[in-house]
Each structure stands twice: as C-alpha cells, then as structure tokens.
Amino acid sequence: MAKNNIITGIDIGSSNIRTLVAHQIRGEENLRIVGVGVVTSAGIRRGIIVDIEEAIKAINESVELAERMAGSAVNRAFVSIGGNEISLENSKGVVAVGRADGEVEENDINRVIAEAQAIALPMNKDILHIIPKKYRLDDQDNIKNPLGMRGVRLEVEALVVESSASHMKNLTKAFYQAGIEIEDIALEPLASAKSVLTKKQKELGVVLINIGGGTTSLAVFEEGEILHTAILPIGAGHITNDVAIGLRTSIEVAEKVKLEYGSALCRDINRKEEIDLSQFDSQEYGYVSRHHVAEIIEARLREILEMAQSELQKIGKAGLLPAGGVLAGGGAKLPFVSELAKDVLGLPIQVGFPQGFSGVLDKVDDPAFATAAGLLLWSQDHQGGSSISGNDAIFAPIIRTTGSAVGKVRKWVGKFLP
Q1: Helical packing angle, 236-247 and 251-261, nearest 10°
Q2: For 122-125, which contacts have Cβ atoms below 8 Å and span 24 or more sequence positions?
Q3: In the list 126, 208, 322, 396, which could disulfide-bond 204, CB 3.0-4.6 Å?
C-alpha cells in the first residue's frame, strides 16, 4: 500500500474539497478512515481550476483538517478530476499474440491496450483513462479477461477518456505547490462507482448519477463492464442559484432554505406553508411559500435527470437497466429525490452511500463522500492489491494508463517550479 500504510483521497469538487485519510490495517478487510477534512471550494468552477492560488489555499485547508484528525501528515494523495472538459472516444486495438503456443500473457494485454491508445489527439487534449470494454480472441468475442486463453489475434474495444491538457496541468501544479504528490488521478464518476456500487449491480446493469455542486456525472455499467460515462455541466449549485433568483435573496440564504426546507417534489407540500426568511439572515424580511421553493427545486432537478436520461437514450439503455439507478453527491440528499428520479428515468432508484470502510463512519456516511471514499478504494487497484479480481479487474489497465499521464504532467510542472 501507500507509504506507512496511509492512504489519502482528495475530491476536488465545485462546492467542497473533501479529504479522507485511511489506514490499511493488517488483518482487517476494510480500510479504516481516520481523518476527514471538508472545506468550501475556492478557485474552482464546474470542476475546473480558475484561480490556482485560491485552489491551493482550499486544498491545504482541507488536508490540514484531515491531518489533525488523523494525527499524521499527508504528502501523497489520489485525486479526482471532473468538469465538462472531459470527452469520450471509442477506440480499437489489434495485436498478434506473442507466444508461439498462442497463450495470452499480460504483456499481450498491455500491447493491445497501447494500440487502442494510439489515436490522433487534438493538441490541447491528454488521455486520462483507457477503459477496456471487451476483448476478442480470434473468433471468440465478448471476452472479459483473455489472460491465459489461447489464440493468434487479440483485439480490444476500449473507451478512451480524454481531458483538457491545461486542466490536467493546472490540477497537478496546484497539488505540487500545495506540497502533495499525486499518486494517481481518477475520473470522478469512476471513483464514485468504486464506493457505492456493488458487483451484482454492475453485473445486472446500473447507472450511477452523482449530483455535485457544479456538474452532474454518470457512469453506466452492464455485465460488469463500463458502458458509458459522461459529465453534465449542471449541478446542485444551479438549484441554489434558481432559488436565490426566485426568492430574490442571497446565495447564502437560498442555500440554507434549500437544505432546511427544500424538496425534490412539490406535490406533497402544503401550499399554505410559509418560510420566515429572517430566521436565516437578520437583513432579510418577509415570508415565502415553501411550495414555491419546492417548485423551483423540482424544475431544475427534473432538468438534470432528463439530461441523464438523454445519455441513457444515446446508448440504448433508457429504462433497460435491471439494477436501476444509484444517486450520489450532495444533490442526492434532497428529500424525495429518489421518487422524482423514478418518475423521470423509469427505473428503480436508491441513494448510494460509501461501503467497505471502518473507522469514523459517522463522518462519511453521506452520499456527498462517494468520490473521496472511492479514491481510497481506487488506491488498492493502483497498488495491485487484492481488490483486483473478477469484474473489478477491468480497472487494472486504467491505473497503468493514468500513471503515465500524471508522469507527463509532473515533468511539465517541474520545468517551471523549483
């Protein structure tokens, strides 16, 4: 595992930066969370760094809070990446099996993934992940893991996840200047999936929808494979903005009203119930209808979910995922959000919470911690731990690919910094 068996995951969100510190204890199956740090994001908009100095300050504050709770220093971390700078591209790779007897070795798998990676990229793009969707060996198709099988021609169909080169460089530079080495960068919806989705859900077919502050991400799995992932440029922060406009009040008051009196469905809210704004700010006065607040929230949430439904329609999976949908992120905590999602998506819906941990669980038993917790589990694959087995083996090649991307950016940063 990581040095001194300390693992750190840092979720760079549009609304909050969340840091989790965990210990890998010998003899314990689950990672033990020992440190938690949450601060309001600064210098970040829709998952993108727009002010690097402000972002560095917020990262340091979040890490310091987690360090104080954990009683140990953090100098390495697994980091999430999101934002609407992310794009997807399908690719194929073909190689001849190297051994004379035709047995597929790990080197053959690495070579065919490298072939899939050899695509023409725009000047401002870097490859973040290569996600193998399925392999083909001679005439046998739909192979999940060809290792040890025999054949002559090995093919792979892969999903290439690309990120803006400047986005990667700014993210890496911010952590470098904060004194934290990035062990690996993980796409936010893939990290979230590690902590809130079960193996059975991935086998049956499931969509994870993570409603963050500035963006909403989704990842679709079926038969243990990642079918599709996307990041939508709208999130729970837009709901707050709408409430502020609708009530003609400040963002701060609107956020408090949303959290205390908000609902994803307006139909069950009494039209006569009113909210006294002065309880949130002495400068505010007057009453507003709680039903009207719920109408505003439902309209924006419905828009977010309809955009997610459009992504499912693109891949022909709308209404066709037996395990349904799992909601995560801060936006998943609104009352009746599951009921609204059922109406829009036509699927069974549940709210996802991080699984597979011990320690200070009361601090992280929250769908908003899905990504940060997933980064801790991601670390086990990065280190080649026992978690790479069965359907999770699909994530092993991803780690090797992102490692090289981080290395390239690290070298670039080194040219400009002492």
Answers
A1: 110
A2: 123/165, 124/164, 124/165, 124/166, 125/87, 125/162, 125/163, 125/164, 125/165
A3: 322
> Can you give the pLDDT at residue 321?
96
How far out from the chain centre does Cα 322 lie?
22
Question: What totals of helices (H) and strands (E) does the chain contain, helices first?
Answer: 12, 19
CB atoms within 10 A of CB 248: 11
Amino acid at 413: V
pTM of the model: 0.86
pLDDT of residue 331: 92
Q: Are 137 and 104 in contact (CB under 8 A)?
A: yes
Name the residue with tokens 């892969």: 158
CA 28-30-36 angle, to 5 degrees, is 120
Mean pLDDT of 70-75: 92
Tokens at residue 181, please? Answer: 């080495």
- Residue found under tokens 């959290």: 259
Name beta bridge partners: 232.
216
SS3 263: coil
Sketch out the chain's domains with CATH numbers.
Answer: 3-84+165-195+354-416 (3.30.420.40), 87-162 (3.30.1490.110), 200-234+300-351 (3.30.420.40), 236-292 (3.90.640)
Determine the Cα angle at 115 with ends 112 and 121, to 5°. 150
DSSP assignment of 60-116: HHHHHHHHHHHTS---EEEEEE-STT-EEEEEEEEEE--STT-B--HHHHHHHHHHH
**pLDDT at site 88:** 81
| Cβ contact 364:352 at 8 Å | no
Summarize pLDDT for 185-206 with one digit per residue, the tens.
899 999 999 999 999 999 999 9
The position carrying tokens 């419905």 is: 302
Q: What is the CA radius of gyration of the chain?
A: 22
**How far, in Å, CA of 180 to CA of 153, rounded?**
43
Q: CA 340, 88, 213, 31 torsion: positive or negative?
A: positive
* Burial classification of residue 414, based on how many CB atoms lie within 10 Å of its CB (0-12 exposed, 13-18 middle, 19 or more buried): exposed
* Dist. CA 98–CA 112, nearest whole Å: 11
Question: Do residues 54 and 42 lie in contact, with contact meaning Cβ atoms separated by under 8 Å?
Answer: yes
At 336, which amino acid appears?
Answer: F
Spatial separation of the C-alpha atoms in residues 230 and 84, rounded to whole Å: 9
